[in-house]
Amino acid sequence: MDPNLLHWRSQGQSFLSRVQIWLNLLDPTVLLSSDAEIERSHSLLGGREKREKDAPALTLALSSVHADSGAVLPLVFRPPALLPISAPLVVASFLPHNTVKPALFWQFLLQSYSAGFNYANRNSSSEQGKQTSVKQLLLIAGTVSYATCAGALPQIFINRLGVRSPPIQTFFRSILPIPLSAALAFFNVFTVRSEESETGIRVFDSDGNPVGISKAAGEKAVRDTALSRAALFGTTAAFPNLLVLLLKRTRLFQRNSLLVAPLRHISVAFVLGLMIPVSFSLFPQLGTIKKEELEEDLQAAAVDGQLFYHRGL
Asked: For this UniProt entry, which segments traverse the membrane (predicted)?
């Protein structure tokens, strides 16, 4: 089992401990480290004592190295890069556009980046030595295309239907994006990582030894990650929109309507920043699956009643 996963097993079992770990790992300054520094840090991690003594190396490895392949993640798809890259895209996608084209443009950028992040941080334990298939590339392209069009639906409805009523515009601009953002985030993870459910992922026993490939574990890993991403983008859409709706009723914002736009932008970025470590912590990185949920040929290996797997991110 990779040293990264061993750390999650020993330190990341409770929700609060996982939040604490992620707050440390999401420090954007680790993005300044070179690939050589990251590989050196990962190679230094061995036993538990080494991991505890060399905390900076551990942080660098956990935030920059893929737990299955041991390869350095692309810079833009490392967890610390998620907030600085996605925040402008999320803010822009929530803007009240006048036409459909800018809505499609920002949704395309957001969904493309989300698909790339989901794919780069998948569980790749069953793909060792394999190249990305044409089927996977087509699946990613289809996911981005569909999610882009679906994400722009509120603006499409407003323009095509010629909506002028303020209450209906409020529904399309502030209410509909909440469930839509959550659903598209779930869909993006679920489709981009669908191969894990089809082919399975590697599972480990309590000693960290690989015991086989499990489709049931793959389905659980993808489902849990999709739910966490839905929580991230759904909450990011909900809180700022509902806050603006409430504040628009106050005298201050009725007299100073120009305050609404900066408040919306700041609150979107703020909530996104808070929700990233929270959503990453909703489920353990080193997940467990009960013996009765496993395939029959793997149940004998679950001597402790469960097996472990890398959930991905």
From this structure: 137-158, 170-192, 230-247, 259-283
Q: How do residues 194-215 score in pLDDT, each as one tens digit?
A: 999 888 999 988 888 888 899 9
pLDDT digits (tens, 9 = 90+) for 254-266: 787 777 788 888 9
* DSSP per position, 175-198: ITHHHHHHHHHHHHHHHHTHHHHH
> Which one, of 152, 118, 106, lies nearest residue 279 by Cα?
118
For 24, the token pair is 């440390």
Q: Which residues contact 226 (CB under 8 A, 6 or more apart)?
A: 185, 186, 187, 189, 190, 193
Residues 6+ apart with CB under 8 A from 287: 217, 220, 221, 224, 308, 309, 310, 311
C-alpha to C-alpha distances, 179 to 81, 86, 148, 238, nearest whole angstrom: 25, 19, 15, 8
- The SS3 of residue 48 is helix
Question: Domain extents for the chain?
Answer: 74-310
Task: Report if pTM > 0.85.
Answer: yes
pLDDT of residue 1: 58
- Residues 233 and 185: their CA atoms lie apart, in Å, by 7
